[in-house]
Design a protein that fits this description.
Layout lengths: L9 E6 L5 H14 L4 E5 L5 H11 L8 H25 L3 E5 L2 H11 L4 H12 L6 E6 L2 H9 L12 H17 L4 E5 L4 H18 L3
Bound molecules: ligand Z5A.
Length: 215
């Protein structure tokens, strides 16, 4: 429970391509559950039946000509439904929400990557989210070339994964710039290390979060 806000704690996990979010979300969820936390894991874009359909549109190569504005608006359309149907009700009931990407990804990909201004993104953020912001954001960070090499092993690339290294460098830089402006919310993890070493760092962060939240 976030005592200041009388609701559950909202944790997001972010990073560029191949940083290992999927590999670590389950670890985070299981660690919190072992500490007695009722946690709901979800993802963006997606998390609801409508959001998952929007996700398919966003990742599909058939839409390679999608404009940056259409991409941005679809991200927030999926997010509006996600907040209304899943995130806010869970938080209101005192559950913790663990979300694989959220609006920081919009600032990084549509902002840093596509070049849409932060002001324009902030307008949609305020409209769709009201005052809702993540309490903690775990940023898995590693050099882009290592991430791309890891992701390449996974197989078929989606519409975002076919972008070039320069795009992901801009995305990474945008994430790091955000983390610098909000050091209390962001916890940066060195994701270039072995999975075991990454999870050790994450476990340390979770212990601190649990202590801070009085859980
Ligand atoms: N997007 C956006 O543009 N704007 C937004 O607002 C939002 C999203 C919300 C889909 O997201 C796309 O949506 C995303 C940004 C955009 N596109 N991209 N890129 P996604 O989160 O579903 O997509 P993803 O980035 O591909 O995430 P992922 O599937 O969770 O992949 P991952 O973070 O790269 O994690 P992984 O699959 O666990 O790891 C990749 C590989 O590395 C895998 O083989 C692992 O076994 C390996 N791995 C993991 N950790 C390690 C370590 N420590 N050492 C060695 N190998 C490792």
């Amino acid at each position: 429970m976030n005592k200041a806000l009388s609701r559950g704690c909202f944790i997001t996990v972010e990073g560029t391509e191949g940083v290992g979010k999927s590999s670590n979300i389950t670890f985070i969820q299981e660690t919190l559950q072992a500490a007695g936390i009722d946690v709901v894991a979800t993802r963006e874009p997606g998390g609801t039946p409508l959001g998952e359909e929007v996700r398919e549109l966003l990742l599909d190569h058939r839409h390679s000509g999608m404009s940056s504005d259409a991409e941005l608006l679809l991200m927030f359309a999926a997010r509006a439904q996600h907040i209304k149907q899943l995130i806010q009700p869970a938080l209101n009931q005192g559950q913790w929400v663990l979300c694989d990407r959220f609006t920081d990804a919009t600032y990084a990909y549509q902002g840093g990557g596509r070049g849409i201004s932060n002001e324009r993104i902030a307008t949609l953020e305020n409209w769709v989210q009201g005052t809702l912001r993540p309490d903690i954001t775990v940023l898995l960070d590693l050099p882009v070339d290592i991430g791309l090499a890891r992701a390449a092993i996974r197989g078929v690339a989606d519409r975002f994964e076919k972008e070039q290294q320069a795009f992901f460098e801009q995305v990474r830089n945008a994430y790091l710039a955000q983390a610098e402006t909000q050091p209390k919310r962001y916890r940066i993890i060195d994701a270039s290390r072995t999975l075991e070493a990454v999870q050790q760092q994450i476990a340390g962060v979770l212990q601190l979060i649990l202590a801070e939240q009085g859980a």
